[in-house]
């Protein structure tokens, strides 16, 4: 392979890399421009492309999307950029939701039904929910969660619910249960609350939602202040 060919080969490779990286750098701006396209389908497609790119590159995407939002004159594009900003800023700060097990439950106090512990009795399981996938069964009696038993001062179901609410989707929990006359150890991965159940249990999520809204408002004010300070 002669020197002239080698130089041509390396030049071609470098040019291809530069062209590809330049095209990738331009894509987000192209998507932002598409948000005011006459075609609803193209506006939706551009929104989804920005969402996927934004979640994968938060440090890079948030400043660019904010600048696009600040400069945008089209009401439709501005509305979409605002929604994306809010979604991504909250996603960056609160990437996971409260944990969900997927059971209904009753209390069993120590001594009831000849049980030696305070327990959570499994009354039903959501089909294909975290508890179902983790091996819990109807009438299992949960007496330990992550190495901690349930004390006497608060109902076992209340303690169980609070401990799970303090964890997040994707977290692993270890349970010890009584099944018949056997003690069994199970490990399951917490899931995400189904939207329908989340609406039914709205109060449980209101505090977190308020935190998210407040965090985004403060973030937006900080960006506006920074931009104002940069202006001559």
Automatic annotation (TrEMBL):
Query: Domain PDZ, which positions?
Result: 88-154
> Which InterPro entries does the record cross-reference, listed alphabetically?
PDZ, PDZ_sf
Q: Which PROSITE patterns match?
A: PDZ
Keyword list, A-Z: Signal
Q: SMART domains given for it? A: PDZ (SM00228)
Q: Where is the signal peptide?
A: 1-25
Keyword Chaperone listed? The answer is: no
Protein name, as recorded:
PDZ domain-containing protein
Q: What is the lineage of its organism?
A: Bacteria, Pseudomonadati, Verrucomicrobiota, Verrucomicrobiia, Verrucomicrobiales
